Amino acid sequence: MNPRHACLACLDRSPVALLEATLWIAAEHHRDVDVPACISQFNGLYQDINARLPMLPVVELAQPLLRQLSALGFQQDEFHPLRPQAALMDNVLQRRRGQPLLLAILTLELARRLSIPLEGVNFPGHFLLRVPGADHLLDPCGGRRLYPNDCRELLARQYGPQTTLSAEHLRGATPALMLQRLSRNLRQLHISNDKPLAALIDAERVMQLGPVQVTDYLTRAALYQQLDCPQAERFDLEHALLLTDDPMQRLKLSDRLGQLPTATRSIH
After folding, report:
1. Which helix (H) or strand (E) holds 267?
2. What CA–CA distances, in Å, run from 267 to 162, 231, 260, 263?
3. Which residues form the Protein SirB1 N-terminal domain (predicted)?
4. Cα 168–Cα 174–Cα 179 angle in degrees, nearest 5
5. Is residue 48 pLDDT above 70, yes or no?
6. Which of 123, 20, 138 is closest to 5 using CA atoms?
7. Which of 174, 179, 239, 261 has the fewest beta carbons closer than 10 A?
8. E strands, 63-196, where?
């Protein structure tokens, strides 16, 4: 079974093997990733965290769990410009630095093993966590509590003061959605670091993990253009054209399609 198939198979398990799925994503990019060894490393972290947690009801342990991870050095990767390593779980386990989404997935796996109720929240720009029924969210980078005003401030920092906080921003995230978001993050990081072939691996995984957006087709089309694959580029542009309702975007896409070479067919 190749890393892609192994990653997708993790979603069919009960419970979903979310952490292992992220390791198989890392293995797609680096053949030397030893998934069983990484899981063993995580098991050691679990034992360490379990010994450090206070004696409290499990419903009160989510924030102490995040604080213990922070005390052990698990922090948001602040390196600028951000590198793909920040979104590869094997690197996060080794360096203890990563994107909020990776730190959240690590926390969710620990919480599941410790029977701590916790869920992912697909907040734009900065993935968050929530204890079901709580009146606040938790930042996976240290465990800070975020109330509605804090969420508005975080959203404004990410997208500008004109952005309004809505219920859509606070929706829970399924495992497949988290892996798709991780794949989009990696796709962008590989593009930013001038690695189009690696970005294409992530772009293809995005398509397999759930409903896709116009931007997913456009991004993959741009990668195919960079890699000089006009027929694959045409396929994605045609799908983007079918999905978009924007008249200006439809016009631009039609123009781009008109400039691509037509497929040559042989008659036998």
Report:
1. none
2. 57, 19, 22, 13
3. 45-183
4. 105
5. yes
6. 20
7. 261
8. 75-76, 97-98, 119-121, 128-130, 137-138, 145-146
Using CA atoms, how far apart are residues 71 and 167, in angstroms rounded to an integer?
32
What's at 43, amino acid-wise? Answer: N
- Quote the pTM value: 0.94
- Identify which of 226, 233, 232, 228 has the alpha carbon closest to the alpha carbon of residue 194: 226
Interatomic CA distance for residues 229 and 3, integer angstroms: 24
Dist. CA 63–CA 136, nearest whole Å: 11
What are the two backbone dihedrals, phi and then psi, of residue 146, each rounded to the nearest 5 degrees?
A: -120, 115
The DSSP code for 121 is E
Give me the architecture of the 175-259 domain, per CATH: Alpha Horseshoe (1.25)
Distance CA 63, CA 98 (A): 19
Structure tokens at 165: 């906080």
User: Among candidates 76, 210, 58, which has minimal Cα distance to 132?
Assistant: 58
**What's the CA gap between 31 and 17, in Å, rounded?**
20
Domain boundaries defined on the chain: 3-170, 175-259
Are 35 and 28 in contact by the 8 Å Cβ rule? The answer is no
Residues 175-210 have pLDDT tens digits of 999 999 999 999 999 999 999 999 999 999 999 999
User: CA-based Rg of the chain, rounded to a whole angstrom?
Assistant: 20
Please calculate the CA angle 120-132-14 and round it to the nearest 5 degrees: 60
